From TrEMBL:
The keyword Repeat applies. PROSITE patterns: TPR. SUPFAM superfamilies: TPR-like. This is Uncharacterized protein. It comes from Coffea canephora (Robusta coffee).
Amino acid sequence: MQASKYIEFDHSFNDDEKSLASSLLSSCSLNNAACKLKLGKYFEASRLCTKAKVDPCCVKALFRRSQSYLRTSDLEKAEADIKRALAIDPNNREVRLVYQELKDKKRQYFRQEAEIFTNMLSSMG
């Protein structure tokens, strides 16, 4: 936490140092996001992953953010992130596991919606 605060507010870096600082800040944000996920603070985790995702191809940021979206039932955003992560690294076991979890949760969600819809129709007729 301290490292990220120092880097964010120190503007005396040259170009090479700015690049290294950006990388360090991204790492700090992703580590913090991992902690927030374990603590159940999913909105904070997704915010930190968004902040860390300087590189649009950062699989770790996409992966962790998709986990936080999955836990808050924002299935569309979770799917977008996990599919991008899979496109970048299709052999990543953890990413594939979260993708399977997402598919299971979507299946469960559609099943519940179908039951609700069926109940509504049966009560009308």
